[in-house]
Amino acid sequence: MPFWKKSFSKARGVYYPRAIVQGNPVETETIAKDLAKISTVSNSDVQAVLGDIAGVMHTRMAQGKSVHIKGLGYFRYVLDTVGVENLEDFDFEKQVKAVRVEFIPERTRTASGTYTRALVDSDQLEWIELAPNTEEQDPAGGEVEEGSDGSFG
């Protein structure tokens, strides 16, 4: 069950619900063990493949491709940039502030014509409100500062 709590954005002056990550991240070894339990592949084989996936994905995305992992979704590079008013001032190196990986969950059309996203089955999620002083962590495992706007990176 996922968790949420009330959060205040000083920049916007509003309260909003924010999803909260509890405890430490689930590591590759645990995911590998879980996958090995539901397949005919050994834990060590799963870990070996998962250990290489980041490098393979980087190589393909560096070729200008997006990467589709069936049942999971799509990954691609996106740029955080600043614009210039005049074309003469255009300078790619100066305007690119960061390169990020965008993940778009795969979507599946249901019999009723609506879509569901991989990893997000809203009908089966039961959100639990956490007490205001509950310690929370960002996806990388560090603590989140109070009053942030809820985004990471």
Task: Outline the structure in words.
By secondary structure, the protein is of the alpha+beta class. The protein has 2 domains: about 1-20 and about 130-153, no CATH class; about 65-130, no CATH class. Helices cover about 20% and strands about 30% of the residues. The chain has 3 helices and 8 strands. It has helices at about 30-35, 45-60, 90-95; strands at about 5-10, 15-20, 65-70, 75-80, 95-105, 105-110, 115, 130. The protein has a 3-stranded mixed β-sheet with strand order 2-1-8, with no helix packed on it. About 5% of the residues are buried.
Name some characteristics of this structure:
three-stranded antiparallel sheet, single chain, three-stranded mixed sheet, disordered C terminus, 2 domains, 153 residues, alpha+beta, extended
Shape: extended
Mean pLDDT: 85
Write down the secondary-structure element order: EEHHEEHEEEE
**Total strand segments:** 8
Largest sheet: 3 strands, mixed
Q: Which sequence of strands runs across the widest sheet?
A: 2-1-8
C-alpha Rg (nearest Å)? 20 Å
Structural class: alpha+beta
Count of alpha and pi helical runs: 3
* Percentage of residues assigned to helices: 10-25%
What's the domain count? Answer: 2
What assembly state would you assign to the polypeptide chains in this entry? Answer: single chain
Unreliable residue runs: 145-153
Q: Please report which band the strand proportion falls in: under 5%, 5-15%, 15-25%, 25-35%, 35-45% or over 45%.
A: 25-35%
Distance between the termini: 24 Å
